[in-house]
Amino acid sequence: MLNKNVFLKKYFLMTRSEENYLKTIFHLGGGDSKSITTNAIAEQMETKPSSVTDMAKKLAEKGLVNYVKYQGVSLTNSGVKTALSIIRKHRLWEVFLVEKLDFSWDEVHEVAEQLEHIKSEKLIDKIDELLNFPKYDPHGDPIPTKDGKFQERDKKLLSEMAINATGVCVGVKDSSVPFLKFLDKNKIALGNSIKVLDKEDFDNSLRIQLEGKEIRISHQIASNLYVKKND
Amino acid sequence: MLNKNVFLKKYFLMTRSEENYLKTIFHLGGGDSKSITTNAIAEQMETKPSSVTDMAKKLAEKGLVNYVKYQGVSLTNSGVKTALSIIRKHRLWEVFLVEKLDFSWDEVHEVAEQLEHIKSEKLIDKIDELLNFPKYDPHGDPIPTKDGKFQERDKKLLSEMAINATGVCVGVKDSSVPFLKFLDKNKIALGNSIKVLDKEDFDNSLRIQLEGKEIRISHQIASNLYVKKND
DNA sequence: AATTAAATTTAGACAAAACTAAAAATAGAT
DNA sequence: ATCTATTTTTAGTTTTGTCTAAATTTAATT
Asked: Where is the signal peptide, in residue numbers (chains A, B) (predicted)?
């Protein structure tokens, strides 16, 4: 390979693996200059701590993370920027899959994991435009703008809402396939109106009104559903 | 990695590099049980013959190519099937980029080279459906169906058409960026009606009527434009 | 048929990204 | 403050896909 390309690769071009590390570190909170341990990263990525150490050095070399031996890693400004651009792509592709290709929300993650690594600024900007610049992905998570800004929605876990409070379902905390499939089966979707009718002290289960219909849900479920309170 | 996965990887899962080799061998004619030399493949892929030899062995091991030392490679049935599925994805993505995201036809190839490797049968079938099952890509090349069938259109190079013959521009032979940009600049597009008015013996240039307007084009251009003759 | 030129393969090396096992550093508990 | 358990790093190995240089085979020419 040409010398110039070796240089570019070493300092500018991101590999898929590097992008995945940055994304994981961001999700573990490494964007707030908090140090994330190699163990935590390894566990999240289902890899070994020694592999994380290797990558930490490489990312530090590129100026994407701060890495101090035995002290874990945190993202630099440049690292945050890069992580957000990958998360932006991931979430926009998820919206695309649901809105334009009728994927169900439990199917999108795996495919978006691949699509997020496609390198073309024009492509993702056009997808953004096609979707009319959505602010949230199918799980209710906010989509960063092109310049890396995004706003977490003012939301509460359903399990923490007061009796008689009303709101709209805006997101999920657990976005695993089994949970999403459960919600589908029980016809619970983002945008649904919710009113808390009653709480059962014994098992913390809830009686709620969902789009007018009265149903009962367990604490497990209620503590993984985000609701935006009506003012 | 688990033993099962090693097995899957060795015999079933395709890497990006393997897919690119299969595609190249197909494009060089290796689908018609014709032997393609390692040199030809290396040149096309801008790599070295020794690298091709390595890959030839691996693909043979997977049953995707027939490889005899010093004799070159040809695709097996399984290899053709795989190559066609990659070409199908490439061409469908090209249509998507042009039709849905307003890419110009000289911009699509590079991005489609990445998108063709996304692994999701559902994704590409849904894209196919969204595009209403197109038969040709933006350069006029046929898109294989899901079961690997495709029909080359009955077409002729513009340079080979008789004087006074009429037809419709249906494809390009050279799909390089400079040529496509040239066509754009001169407002020559697929679907345009064409009538050959006159041939210049001296330099083989043509006088043609394009969508009613009379223009002159060089032999270079005419021998890279495909036309479907009107019956 | 022998010789030479070209094409192809082998052998050995490298970089990326992972791993294992062993060594080193840190943190917690007494 | 020391010892121990845990965490983290180092060192060395593996796999994939590439490369160079050397060796081998094929093809072409006389």
From this structure: none
Residues 173-202 of A with CB under 7 A from strand D: none
Is strand D in 7 Å reach of the CB of A65?
A: no
A12-75 belongs to which CATH class?
A: mainly alpha
**Amino acid A67: pLDDT:** 96
**Prediction ipTM score:** 0.90
Residues on chain B bordering chain A, Cβ-to-Cβ distance under 8 angstroms? 97, 100-103, 107, 110-111, 114-115, 118-120, 122-123, 126-127, 130
Provide the residue ranges of all domains of chain B, joining segments of one domain with +: 3-75, 156-229
> Looking at the predicted structure, is the pLDDT value of residue B5 above 80?
no
The answer to whether B118 contacts A122, with C-beta atoms less than 8 Å apart, is no
**A69: CB within 7 A of chain D nucleic strand:** yes
CB of A12 within 7 Å of some strand D atom: no
> Which of the listed CATH numbers 1.20.1050.40, 3.40.50.2300, 2.30.30.90, 1.10.10.10 matches domain B156-229?
2.30.30.90
- Least Cα distance to B23 among B67, B87, B76 occurs for B87
Instruction: Give yes or no for a contact between B88 and B19, defined as CB atoms under 8 angstroms apart.
Output: no
> Which two three-digit tokens encode residue A161?
């809402």
- Indicate the CATH number for domain B3-75: 1.10.10.10
CA distance A74 to chain B (A): 28
pLDDT tens-place string over residues B56-89: 999 999 999 999 999 999 999 999 999 999 999 9
Per-residue pLDDT, A24: 97
